[in-house]
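Would you mind giving me a polypeptide sequence along with per-residue structure tokens?
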Amino acid sequence: MKLYTRTGDEGKTSVIGGRLDKNHIRVKAYGTLDELNSFVGLAVTKLQDAKFDDIRNELVKIQHELFDCGGDLSSVKKDYPYKANADMITFLEERIDEYIKEAPELERFILPGGSEASSAIHVCRTVARRGEREIVELKQDNEINPVVLKYVNRLSDYFFAIARVINFRAGVNDVEYERSAIVFRGGKRKADAE
């Protein structure tokens, strides 16, 4: 089998059940999840220390789930059996709750950064947010698996939570936004909520 097919030379690509222009919002949305998956893979390579085993294993699981979500978004068939499911969201919520307990108290907005691994996760977070916006746009005029939108929304929250935990475990302080007022009172809240 050849890697190149020449079928996309005119600016169209195959999706499940048809063909679309490569700049169609559906293609953009699942393409952004593919981009996110690549950044997650890069982040995994920066988390080889044993103290990150749990996070690294979760990220590999998430890579498979992102593939599932991308597959669901790439279908224009009416009877397509979706792969993304509510259990994926529940898992993220449970992990977020645990990581929020582990990270230090948060009062102010923080800058993306700290350790190299945490910075890589913040890139994942922002790409996930872009993917979420594109999925919202796709959903306005197209049928989608609604779980995918919820999952990607929760995933960006998960990335924020683990970015903070990675810095904490690495002994690196989060960098507070110097002009931030105290915006999170009375608990370990996340600063990325939307």
